[in-house]
Amino acid sequence: MQSPNGSTNKTSSVKLSITFKYDKSGILTLKKAEVHTTSSTSYPLKTSTKLAGPSPLTKAQKAKCKKHLRAYEKRDKALEKLKIIMNEYESLIYSTRDILEDEDYQPYLKSEVEKQKLNLFLDEEEEWLYSDKTKNEYNTVKAKLKILEKKINPMKKRRQARQQIPEEIEIARRKIDEHENSFRKYTKRRSWIKESILEEFETLVVETREYFDEKVLNFKMKFINNYVLDASA
């Protein structure tokens, strides 16, 4: 073998020592290389050649990667938001169909025509919901959801109001009873009150009850005429 100074040593053996560095990013680089002889002499080698494989990212490359990552995260959040409101709209369509077929809700539809129009609207909206038009259309789906709620809310409110009527009627009847009892207790402590005044009060109570019952009956009849389904419509 020929040494770096040009002399030849046929009996010496040579060893090559190479040191690598493996960083946290998984990049493998050649750090140092030396030639060792039996005479304990070491000859460092130049390590200008780079190993094949990925190299560490530059500052500009890292910034670009972060920008792309933020864009992907924003897109994923928008898609998740769209998915949630689409599911909400789909559920509202199905629940509205159930309401239209629920016997308990039938008296609160204005007519059979109203029911048919709502069913047709639901068919059209369901077809639209499963079409490609809904891609990236969060605001459109949200607006459609509000439109459907606006269409069915009057029926729900009519039902809610109708369910509250018996309780409100009962409260009004109790008020009449309370006023009557209060007056009777008052007159018992006031013996000087004339009999004619008591009779007048009794007449007033009877007339009040009759008037109240008449108004309640008229309201019930109005409700039936306005909200029960008309099969001939």
The Rg value, from CA coordinates, equals 45 Å
Question: Kindly state the mean pLDDT as a whole number?
Answer: 76
Number of helices: 4
| Shape summary | elongated
- Strand fraction equals 5-15%
Uncertain segments of ≥5 residues (pLDDT<50)?
227-233
The domain tally reads 2
Derived from helix and strand composition plus strand pairing, the structural class reads mainly alpha
First and last CA, distance: 112 Å
Give a quick account of the main beta sheet: strands, pairing sense, barrel closure. Answer: 3 strands, antiparallel
By DSSP, the count of extended strands is: 3
Strand order of the largest sheet: 1-2-3
Description:
The chain has four helices and three strands; from the N terminus they run βββαααα. α1 packs antiparallel against α2 (112-129) and α1 packs across α3 (138-188). The longest helix has 51 residues, at 138-188. The chain has helices at 59-101, 112-129, 138-188, 195-227; strands at residues 14-22, 28-37, 42-45. The N and C termini lie far apart (112 Å). With 233 residues, it is mainly alpha-helical. 3% of the residues are buried. The protein folds into two domains: 14-56, no CATH class; 66-227, no CATH class.
Short description:
With about 230 residues, the chain is mainly alpha-helical.
Tags for this entry?
single chain; 233 residues; mainly alpha; 3-stranded antiparallel beta sheet; 4 helices; 3 strands
